[in-house]
Amino acid sequence: MEQLFFVQLGMGADLHGQSITKAAIRAVQNAIHHNSMPGLRSVLPEGSLHNMKVNVKLAVPCERETLDEAAVKAVLPYGQVTIEVIDGGMVTTSGVILPDKQDKNDLIYVVNASIEVGF
Q1: What is the mean pLDDT of residues 94-111?
Q2: For residues 117 and 8, what is the distance between their CA atoms, to the nearest angstrom?
Q3: What is the pLDDT of residues 8-39, one digit of tens each?
Q4: Contacts (Cβ under 8 Å, ≥6 apart) of 19
Q5: Residue 107, SS3?
Q6: Membrane spanning segments where (predicted)?
Q7: Closest to 74 (Cα-Cα) out of 32, 13, 114
């Protein structure tokens, strides 16, 4: 990334179902849903949001191999998106197993996201 403009942070959890992808999507949504970047287009090449570079860093506590990166990328409406997965996040207990929510156990998966935006 030649020029970094924004770093947005988010956290997402899957309370039931133990899906790292669901927790990661929620972390990315949490990072981007409270931001507006109205001046960004004026500094992007050709004034196009498609020329924006978006680097997503995900701190994932477990089951990295099950992360659906395409599903995470689909949450971001514009830009050339890259994903970097690192160790982190958290696994904790929900205290209950709910079979109707596809629980395999009583664990909550928590993922942290850092979204870097620039060109």
Answers
A1: 96
A2: 8
A3: 999 999 999 999 999 999 999 999 998 888 89
A4: 66, 109
A5: strand
A6: none
A7: 32
Q: What is the 3-state secondary structure (H, E, C) of 37-60?
A: CCCHHHHCHHHCHHHCEEEEEEEE
CA distance 42 to 51: 12
Token pair, residue 15, equals 């309370």
Q: What is the pLDDT of residues 46-73, one digit of tens each?
A: 999 999 999 999 999 999 999 999 999 9
Distance (Å, rounded) from C-alpha 41 to C-alpha 49? 6
Torsion of CA 26, 10, 7, 118, to 10 degrees: 0
Question: Element (H or E) spanning 103, and its range?
Answer: none
Tokens of 23: 């927790």
3-state DSSP of 78-101: CCEEEEEEEECCEEEECCCCCHHH
Task: Report in angstroms the alpha-carbon separations of 107 from 21, 88, 91, 102.
Answer: 15, 16, 6, 12
